[in-house]
Amino acid sequence: MNEPFIIMSAPNGARRQKSDHPALPITPDDMALCAELILSQGASILHLHVRDEFGGHSLDVDRYRASITAIRDAVGDELIIQATTESVGIYNRHQQMEMVKSLKPEATSLALRELCPTEDDVLEFSEFTKWINQEHIFPQYILYNQYDYDRFEIYRKQGIFHDDNPFVLFVLGSYTATDEAATEKLKQTTLQAKFPWAVCGFDTNEKNSVIHAAKNNGHIRVGFENNLWRTENELLQDSGEMIRYSAKIAALEKRSVATATMIRNIFNLRD
What we know:
The protein is an alpha/beta fold. The chain is built from ten helices and twelve strands.
């Protein structure tokens, strides 16, 4: 039986501004309006970035709390809010982990290569993932290439994540020049995964990523963080457009669109 299709929304990311797209959300009020939109179109997880007073990337806990409060006021618990730990070359792994410990979000995304860059860091990282599980925080581990996947599988089998079936995001491509062969190899690797996975794609390749995930019992993350474009020359209307597309593709594959309640039940996220 086909699993419900999880549609995650990444509506802003760490770098882009309203000059890139006027509908890109920056402030807590922006995020609240965006949350209402993406929920209405079928998203169940909001991948949240917050910005500083200059519009730059931030892991400030108070800024996270302000956005989370605004989102919850708008949509209640009908969206799972996933706080990013992305470093963007600004934060080190200890600052990233400390943000999660201070904020205690419902969900968080963790790039393996940032949080556990070397073998010397494995023990500390394992203690962190153990704490995450004890706190009933829902992690998603981000893998950017085949090397990340190979390390991830070794660590998974060793019990480093304290979960036999951790949720993973495979990143298919990059903001800059994409190595098509490497991206295709990683795309095929998703078919070997023994755990729940999602993918995200860049620019107009986002649609191909949606189709790949829907056809192969994976899940999808779409949004302005990775793609602003409907075609090479035409911007998407808003954060809801690719969610609507994803829901349409899911229907063609006879997969229902997952709600936040379904996800909490599937991953046993309740205390």
